[in-house]
Amino acid sequence: MTVINQVKLVLPAKSINESYARIAAAALAAQFDPTVEQLADVKTAVSEAVTNVIVHAYRDRKDGKIYITMKLTQDGRIVIAVRDTGCGIADVSQARQPCFTTAPGEERSGMGFSIMETFMDTLRVSSRPGRGTTVTMSKRLR
Amino acid sequence: MNLKLMEDKGTLVAAVTGEIDHHNALLLREKVDRQIAAMRPAELCIDLSGVEFMDSSGLGFIMGRYRSMAGLGGKVSVKGAKGRVEAVLQMAGAYRYVEKIEGGNPV
Ligand SMILES: Nc1ncnc2c1ncn2[C@@H]1O[C@H](COP(=O)(O)OP(=O)(O)OP(=O)(O)O)[C@@H](O)[C@H]1O
Ligand SMILES: [Mg+2]
Fold it and tell me: How far is the CA of A52 from the centre of ligand 1 (A)?
């Protein structure tokens, strides 16, 4: 995988930064001249990953940070990794099931991972309870 | 995100424009719930025709209002969702719970 452009962001885990993160992803993706639909897919997937960090990973903490790495590859893909050092996920395959949520009382529907999976080409989730989670996703844009 | 609340023959119409994410879904919820408590409508119609972006937090907002309206004996309808906003609603099977209103005049 030859990387032709790369952006790294470190953001405080505050909900106000959700829009910043997806606009940054869209701005990088725009370098490949994607369709409106492709851009919307990338923005929605990034919004899901970043929101999960804020509402789940750092649930009881105010000082958490979101680490985002975004790459454009020679062969026309965008690769986005969203990492946190929060609570982690004990059972990743259960968490990825549609409608599975640990926060139903907060109007969560358990659809975030399903949306990332559907709107991107690949999705990988690696997590260690107590240490944090990294969500890596990619999509071909040209 | 911008919200316009209107009353139309017992229906509360909530016309949202802009982006619905976790950050502004909280605000949306607060404003709409306050109006529901004051007006006790038989139906809440959520007009999404001006929404350019919505993620699962918007879905949570809609399903949450479905539950609270059902508790009051009322219902929720949604209209005007397009593009990926509509894709998110379809994927989650939201139209099994809330009525989809097709066409009609934009509010
Ligand atoms: N970064 C994370 N850190 C810790 N737990 C996470 C993280 N991301 C997801 N989870 C866990 O995985 C579950 C499923 O996530 P998903 O995004 O699919 O649904 P949700 O966030 O609960 O609801 P929705 O995204 O529909 O609002 C969450 O309820 C949470 O328990
Ligand atoms: Mg989520």
Answer: 5
Residue whose Cα lies nearest atom 12 of ligand 1: it is: A95
Instruction: Return the residue of B nearest to A99 by Cα.
Output: B92
Q: Cα angle vertex A39, ends A16, B17, to 5°? A: 55
142 residues of chain A, pLDDT tens digit each: 899 999 999 999 999 999 999 999 999 999 999 999 999 999 999 999 999 999 999 997 889 999 999 999 999 999 999 999 999 999 999 999 999 999 989 999 999 999 999 999 999 999 999 999 999 999 999 9
pTM confidence score: 0.97
What ipTM does this complex have? 0.95
Residue-range definition of the domain harbouring residue B26:
2-101
Q: Is A106 on the interface with B (CB under 8 A)?
A: yes
Residues with CB under 6 A from ligand 1: A 48, 52-53, 56-57, 84, 86-89, 95, 100-103, 108-113, 133; B 56-57, 60
Domains and CATH numbers, chain A: 3-140 (3.30.565.10)
Residue B106 domain flag: no
CA dihedral B48, B52, B57, B60 (to 10 degrees): 20
Cα–Cα distances (Å) from B106 to A78, A104, A117, B43, B102, in that order, read 36, 33, 33, 17, 11
First CA to last CA across chain B, in angstroms? 16
Number of folded domains in chain B? 1
A107 and B22 within 8 Å at the Cβ level: the answer is no
